[in-house]
Amino acid sequence: MSLIGSAASESSLVASGVLVIHAVHAGGRVWLWGESGNAFTESGGAVGAGESTFPHPFAAASDDLKAGLSALGLELVDPITTRIEVALPSVDGRVFASSPLSHVLGREAYFGDSEVAAGRFEVPAIGLEPGRWAAFFERLADVDETGGVLLGPGVRYFELLTAVGLHLMSQQRFVPMLRQDGGGALTAAWSPWMNDEATAEKMSAVLRVMPGAARSGVDDLEHDAWAITESYLNALVDAECRRVLDEEDMFDTVEGRDAVADPQVAWMQGLLGPEGVVPSPPSQRTEVARRVRRWIGSLEDRGQSSDWRLLFRLNEPLNENLEDNIDEPDDSLLWSVSFHLQSQERSDVVVDAADVWLMSADAATVEGLALETPQELMLGELGRSSRLYKPFEGVLNETEPIEINLPTKKAYEFLREVRPILVESGFGVEAPNWWESPTGRLGARLKIDADPLEQLVDSGPGSAGSVGPQLGLTALVGYHWEIAIGDATLTLNEFEQLAQKNSPLIRVNGRWVEVRPEDVQAAIEFIRENPGGEMKLAEAMRLAYASDARQTGVPILGLDASGWVDQLLGGGGEGMDDSSAELVPILETPERFKGTLRPYQIRGLSWLAFLERFGFGACLADDMGLGKTVQLLALMSHEREAAAKAGLVGVLPTLLVVPMSVVGNWVREAERFTPHINVLVHHGVERKVGDELIDAASSSDMVVTTYALANRDRDTLEKVAWGRIVLDEAQFIKNPSAKQSMAVRSLQADKRIALTGTPVENRLSELWSIMDFLNPGYLGPSGTFRKKFSVPIERYRDAHKGEQLRGLVRPFILRRVKTDPTVVADLPEKLETREWTHLTSEQAALYESCVKRMLTEVEQTDGIHRRGLVLAALIRLKQICNHPSQVLKDVDAQSSRPADPSRSGKCTRLMEMVDEVLAEGERCLIFTQFRQMGHLLAGMLRHEMGRDVLFLHGGTPQGQRQKMIDTFQDPDSNKPILILSLKAGGVGLNLTAATHVFHFDRWWNPAVENQATDRAYRIGQTRTVHVHKFVVRGTLEERVDEMIEAKTELAERIIGAGERWLTELDTSELRNILTLRADAIGDEEA
Amino acid sequence: MSGDQPARPSSTPKPPKLTGERQRGRGGPAGGYRPEKKVALKPKRVRGGVKLKTAEGEAIGNWVSQRIMRVIEAAADGEVLREGLEYARLGQTKKLDITEDGIEASVQGRMTRPYTVTVKLKKFDNAGVERVINAMGEQARYAAKLLSGELPRDIEDLFAPLGLRLLPTEADEFEITCTCREENKPWCKHAVCAAALLAERLATEPLVVFGLRGLPVSELVERLRENRALAGHGSGPAAIYAPRVPGASDQPATALTDVVDRFWDDPSDQAPALPRSLPEIDKPLLRRLGASPFEARFPLVGLLATCYELIAQSASRDADHDEGEHDVAANDG
After folding, report:
1. B304 touching A, CB under 8 A?
2. The whole model's pTM is what?
3. What is this model's ipTM?
């Protein structure tokens, strides 16, 4: 995560300057404390054990804590500052750094060491009273953590609990409560009520994710997870309820009344008054407490039997000649609520009341289930239910009641109002299946009339190319609204008649439908105000997918389109998958494209061409490894062939903006698949500038440049007439206000494509940036988007808003994942790709000087000595290709600072790719030959990914080895990255949890590499395994790789002999193989 | 009294009135009875009577049942015991009422009319009940088990220091009446039959035994909840009622050292949906609570309703993001 855009924010986070803020709950307050990266020390507190407390060795001073909070925009007025105790994982009084801190420092977090104790440490802390909790924790969602101040898991937990508390308040899930102290004095409180099934489930989920960090406060709750959670919620809800009631001056309603004469007054005075005191005299207290306890306790009542419950079933009227359409059911039409007993364990076992009355009074057996005193149970439960629903009282006078009858309006009330109450009280209620089904709703449906595709295509001479910008999101489309109930469409006239009838349940086409009178009225008004006409497609889509019933007055049920709009929208396909590419015309593989496209890649190509033709920007978001590059190259081939067929002279060039790390890859892939495409690489010191650049760009087919240069050379690039702009790894523009993002958005071209391997639909700021590049303005300004979508979806997990947003963007995003059935069928079990990377100028300088020295030295030696020299130099060159620190030893693998991945082209690319792997929720293996490189990588990955990283090498003890493997294979563990030194990882391990395998450096022996790869690709693996082999362009890595690929005679020797063959080459051969080629270097800043 | 030796020597060996059988077996609780020895004169058949589910030769119910059975086996004469159990298995019991007071059963014998049997236990006095409740308040473990309907095996450890016993161990802790005229009073076969059914029932509803001792389950549960709430946290005020939250409040406590592996895991990603919207139906809890628990005139429920509305509106207002965005199509690019 933290990696993307790191080039832009390098200076923002100096590893050691980091501050991690934690929160604990103790003594009724929340305490914030911090760990300071500056103060970090390995040595820990004083040595000792047991109960004694040590000062925390790298806790932040309270002033630093305050400064950190203000850096996040969280100033606190008059905070309580003191020192508190916290219990933290430690060994012998030496405290571990928290995971967030150790990740930033790139250090290894402790790994399941059984010796770990919860030692006590004293830390400076800032206290928050319950009254300030909601305001404080609610603001955290907007906090930007990139400034070096991080919020730890404890803070996040109390933020989550705050959301729980406010959720319960908005849902009216709280009760008035009484509290009593040891002396019997009463106080009143508002308490959350979490006993109902849905809330209890949520609380159970919340408790499961409670980190130990949130339990580390020291008080009489003794770290108990539930006690802390409940205590926090009780205090939060009480404080927030009181704040609201105080703002509304509710105390005025009871102030001055006689609390002695009426205990209710006393209780309310406590609930509404400032102090909470319930002024009941001691003589009344016991009775008051007893009654309130019974009253509130009745909410927990779930019936007499834990094996059987009373089930109510609402049955439709059974009249023989019931008409298919009834808009005003009269009172002679009777619904029934029938009574049954239902097994709690097996809900399919139901006994009708009539059968219950026939049973033995004492006990019966139904389908093997014992049913004790069935009649008593039935009557007792009916009695209980009658307290919740008065009409049931009547049946208690009958000797053997089996049902009650209700007229339509009462039946509606039973369904809407009574049913949820009964269910919550432990009764079963079965509603007819049409109730609350989405097809049974009343609402408005937008109809869009667009011409069929064929008509458009035939209309112009350039039909094979672009239909042009007259379409796209600003195209005007004809529309009108229809009112629908379920799947039946009604005319306005029919509708107005319905409104007169005022019946909440009506029968349409033989089905009962719920119609709320207020909906009918609103729908009529809506149709009157929106007679239809023409509007922009973007507007229509926003109306259909993202309007709010509160604004339109009626639910908008969606959109029906015809013609090309229907094809664009994928005909109601399911999500951002292949289905949106199903309806577009399928193209052939372009003739000059060298290679075979898999079927899903053909669909991707066709979809891209289709969207471009209609003037839409398109985002291809396939999983890494599915071949986004070839799909784009195929599109370029197709574009040229189609233009040629149509007799068009030229096609404007495409500007491809990519991260530095993949420039080489693009060039290689273009050479391989589309050699006829004329590629200009615009980067490096010797890149063209000014008019020269404009000329060269205009006469090429594709210009490849980097995000940094797109910004730096923006003025010149703007002058080129581009046909298309493509962003690769488009998540690079996720920060909309970053210069690079603004630069690429400012470049003009009719066609826009974004490629990304991350699940964009889940990363909302990224999604907005990419969509705004593709289809400017479509999702509105970023601030509005944030308010309307990001906050509700990310903070409140608002599923409805999520649906709306998906509806809006779905036509423009094609995302296939490897597990899609349509894709999986096309994929081999093992997919192998080369990743061509580059050297940074630091690496290049080291590389060249190493080659030079070696060549001079070998001139003067021979025999074993010479061989030794070559071998040593060779290993050194490989290390330089990996990372400069591997030869310079300027980063201590065990030290507190990780190496900087941007010093190595390979590392930069690896970080990007691992980030994608993690974003896909997958796991990966990374093989290296060098143990030291493994340490460097582990440090970098911890820092960049913010995750624990496993590293298994020759020196790992057997016990820990197995533990690591088990952890990696455990689907619940949070450790998705495993680094292996090739030797250690060669034999016997089963690591099928991985779906990506990286060969970070090369053994140059396919057999050895395959053996390693087979750790993941072996029996038990059910998914496609992607193998990524890293090759640095222009270096000996590429040369050797080419030789192996070409299967030359030399290659045979290479494979057989490891690296020894190189030592036998003569000096000129050596020079040939080792000398750096010009295209090797690629620095962002070059 | 020794529990493993179920029967003491019969003081007056009965002549084999009905079957002319020989002396009964004396092995396990039930294993020694001989199934081949049938009752010659059978009792009147009963349709749909309450039957003992345990087959002959099997131990009845669970450990609670077996403690009761031991007393019965020791008290009743061997032949009577066998016949009583046979009655219970045959379903001679036409009616069985288990109330908090005791059990009343209607057992059909060989005569036309069934006999009425009552079986009760000696009740604790009021002071005893108070002592029991207080002791439970101090030992939260018992309360937790009992609230979930379970009787802990070591329950007597709680009663013994109070000089009380929950489950009977002596025959004289039972108070038995029967309308029959048999000579084996009070442990006639009808009493054995009814008591065995009680023992079996206690396996599934063990808390009934509290009722038999004078502390009805409903009161017990309420007193326990009250105690538990008061016992809450130290000496400060505690809620008078602590509702259970299934799946959360009943989870076993873990030590901090047990979660060292996940000590610093970020909880944010796995949070459940927590929308800030008003409930589907208005004030569900207040509706379920119904009328005020007090008789006086003050409109408690009405005032609470207003509070519920104000609080819910305020909490949901923060989430009302669309304020001021009336035109959905306003931001056209």
Report:
1. yes
2. 0.67
3. 0.71
